[in-house]
Amino acid sequence: MSLLDVEDLAVTFNTPDGPVYAVSNVSFSVKKGEALGIVGESGSGKSVTVKSLMGLLPRTADITGTAEFDGVNLFNLPSDRKKHFYGVDVAMVFQNPMTSLNPVKRIGSQLTEGMRYHTGISSSDANARAVELLDLVRIPDASDRLAQYPHELSGGMRQRVVIAMALANDPALLIADEPTTALDVTVQRDILDLLDSLRADLDMGLVLITHDLGVVHDRTDNIVVMYGGRVMELAPTNDVFADMEHPYTEALYQSIPNMSLPRGTRLNPIPGSPPDLSVTPVGCPFAPRCTYAIDRCSSEIPPLFDGGARADHYYACFVPQGSAGES
Question: What's the pTM value of the predicted model, to 2 decimals?
Fold first, then answer.
């Protein structure tokens, strides 16, 4: 049974210049203890998708479709239920650790605030729990950190604090939206490894959002590839890397820097720019940038085809590149 089920999610922003079709017909699921990677370039709809699930979009957003968490419809939660649902059942780690913490409040105060609000535990018990959380995310001298301010910690330490805050009330699902933004490469790896180990140790569902296919390679069970607000490919992670069907998935993979290539080898970026989401889509959103596009791609939006014998492998493409394209 799935912990989170999203079906036909669509998000349209109503602006003075007309509607912006940020997300269209997105579906996926996450089971308990499972990790899902949502991958795509900036502007592909990744963050809008998860923010709609967290109730973080502005009132100008028109949301349709369904999203059920453990049988609870997230889009019909009454306001009093929301107060003790988000941050407890579902928690989120935001993009930039440099701006996710209040610079004028001590670490201990920020860690214990949510716990005391949601559970009503005493100050001493909350402080004890805060130390446990900092130990859990592998911050040394945890008890001493409670009195420190964010500027006294490194970027990696701050991100660990943000993760500890998200874990404070033992959520069943953790959403990490580009959790390594503004961190150097070695710290990025440490944070991603930490999230992966926490998911396994706590038997927690994890949604990991990134623009880098390499990030999700060994850390997720399934991958959703998004572009232009739509799902381009959805499959088990191993299947995606063994048999990429959508040209966009292939292009994302080929754009990853390869350190094994000779010095001076040019990078392989995806040509062109993402689509204008204020324009009503007609064909495949990736068609103008796709080297395999045919006439049909520009006039018809491809549905999600299934991979036939390969269970749970779906792709929105008329000219698939993997084994489906060879058959």
Answer: 0.93
